Amino acid sequence: MCINSIGVLRPRAAQPIPNLLADDFRHPLDQQNTAILRVIPGLPEIGKLILGPVAEQVMLLENIASSVKVNDKQLPHLHDLITEASTILGLESPPDLYVRQNPVPNAYTLAIAGKKPFIVLHTSIIELLKPAELQAVIAHELGHLKCDHGIWLTFANILAMGAYSLPGLGTVIARNLEEQIFRWVRAAELTCDRAALLVVRDPDVVISLLMKLSGGCPSLANQLNVQEFLKQARSYDEASASPLGWYLRNAQTRQLSHPLPVLRAREIDQWGRSTQYKALVARKF
Question: Active-site residue 141, yes or no?
Fold first, then answer.
């Protein structure tokens, strides 16, 4: 840990990973579902329709008007976190970062064609998390940009917020298409959890933030136990191992925009012990 110029305690930056490519850490399910998404007929045209110039401008102006933009003079400790994380992941420059008043802990990325992408942090997630956990959240969002999730991530975020439904399509087709997009974004989230780990270099930090987003609040945060949450993840695997459990698990996740937190915790715990992860963080210039 180190203290910045305004006295805020924050994590000490890890070393950048030389020549880091998205495919170096992309989750296999992300690769698989991206390939499926790319061959769906007409999907790029639907995306362009929903994310047309008017929608893009509305989203951009709404964010500028209702949020606080972070820079080296405005909330500089957050500026330090995103700058460091961008450097570690090998991004040419960090995206814009905004803080928005909202009681629901959340963060999201919007990548608008022809515009600089931006990340939004809700005030409640800043209050809930420690500096290292908050940097992991920011790194997760940067992972979407590193992996060029782009237009489909924005598309999925809009659908998840209930701001749009697929126009001009039959109900069954639209539902199936939305399910496929959510299936893709759930896989993409697993990739971006890996990006978070590459920045903070501690699986417990990533698992801790997932636990807090599941059932944490500022008054309980110091009482939560990462190892107990991992035990909970293993018990979920056991409970869903039967044919009925498998069916219920799939029904439970079908309309979710994110994987279940216990499954994300299990995945990042396993990847943090993998030879792939260890080789990446040991890579030298």
Answer: yes
Strand partners, 97: 119
The b-or-e profile of 193-203 (16+ CB within 10 A means b, else e) is bbbbbbbbbbb
3-state secondary structure of 237: helix
Token pair belonging to 21: 């490519």
> Positive or negative CA dihedral for 78, 84, 85, 91?
positive
Cα dihedral sign, 192-159-150-139: negative
Amino acid (1-letter code) at residue 52? G
φ, ψ of residue 273 in degrees (nearest 5) = -105, 5
**Per-residue model confidence as pLDDT tens for the chain (285 residues):** 555 544 545 556 778 999 999 999 999 999 998 888 777 666 656 655 655 565 666 777 887 889 999 999 999 999 999 999 999 999 999 999 999 999 999 999 887 666 788 999 999 999 999 999 999 999 999 999 999 887 666 666 566 555 444 454 444 445 666 777 778 888 999 999 999 999 999 999 999 999 999 998 989 988 999 999 999 998 888 877 776 666 666 666 666 767 889 999 999 999 999 999 999 999 986
Instruction: Mark out the alpha helices in the chain (DSSP H runs).
Output: 28-38, 43-50, 53-66, 76-88, 123-128, 131-146, 150-160, 171-200, 203-215, 226-239, 243-253, 261-272, 275-281
DSSP-based three-state secondary structure for 120 = strand
Sequential DSSP letters for 17-56: PTT--GGGT--HHHHHHHHHHHTSTTHHHHHHHHT-HHHH
Residue 19 and residue 17: Cα distance in Å, rounded? Answer: 7
Question: One of 141, 178, 189, 267 is an active-site residue; which one?
Answer: 141
Contact between 141 and 109 under an 8 Å Cβ cutoff? The reply is yes
